Structure formats: structure tokens, C-alpha cells
């Protein structure tokens, strides 16, 4: 169950990272509120996952999910570059996340 919670925490990390762009430096009220709510949910879920997962593994997976999701949404939503090298390195992060999950005996 901790792995599922951690994945959801990572998805909320993506939400708050993207929310930072939409909040325009916290100058837009509703996008700022949504960003802060997503940040709090992400942190609470990460803390919950840390009750049973090692901190190094959980943090690396959480940030990895956030990095991959934010990079993909940056391409989709904000027209950021999607060249082959960038996509390849995003893939390396995904391999790292899966490797940490497998090596820790996660289910």
C-alpha cells in the first residue's frame, strides 16, 4: 500500500510543479490555491509512505515521478522541446524509478 501512496504523492508533486507555472509566481489566486493544496497533499502522502519505506528510496521515487511527469507536461502544455536526447534521459529516470521499486521488493 505504501508504494501506491507514494505514486499518488508523486502525481500530486507533478500537479504542484505545473501549478507553479499557472500561478504566475503566486500572483493568480485560484491557481495559487490549487498549487498549495497539491503541495500539502503531496507532502502528507509522502510522509505516510515514509512510515514503511526507506527515506532514500521513497524520496528518489517521489522526485523521479515529479521530474518525469513535469517534463512530459512541460512538452504537452508549454511547448517545451521534445528532442530525442531529452526523451532518452526522461527514460533513464523512469528506469531508475522502476529499478528502485524492484530492488526494494516493492509490490
TrEMBL record:
<dbReference type="GO" id="GO:0005886">
    <property type="term" value="C:plasma membrane"/>
</dbReference>
<keyword id="KW-1003">Cell membrane</keyword>
<keyword id="KW-0813">Transport</keyword>
<dbReference type="InterPro" id="IPR045324">
    <property type="entry name" value="Small_multidrug_res"/>
</dbReference>
<keyword id="KW-1133">Transmembrane helix</keyword>
<feature type="transmembrane region" description="Helical">
    <location>
        <begin position="27"/>
        <end position="47"/>
    </location>
</feature>
<feature type="transmembrane region" description="Helical">
    <location>
        <begin position="84"/>
        <end position="102"/>
    </location>
</feature>
<protein>
    <submittedName>
        <fullName>Quaternary ammonium compound efflux SMR transporter SugE</fullName>
    </submittedName>
</protein>
<dbReference type="Pfam" id="PF00893">
    <property type="entry name" value="Multi_Drug_Res"/>
</dbReference>
<keyword id="KW-0472">Membrane</keyword>
<dbReference type="GO" id="GO:0022857">
    <property type="term" value="F:transmembrane transporter activity"/>
</dbReference>
<dbReference type="InterPro" id="IPR037185">
    <property type="entry name" value="EmrE-like"/>
</dbReference>
<keyword id="KW-0812">Transmembrane</keyword>
<dbReference type="InterPro" id="IPR000390">
    <property type="entry name" value="Small_drug/metabolite_transptr"/>
</dbReference>
<feature type="transmembrane region" description="Helical">
    <location>
        <begin position="59"/>
        <end position="78"/>
    </location>
</feature>
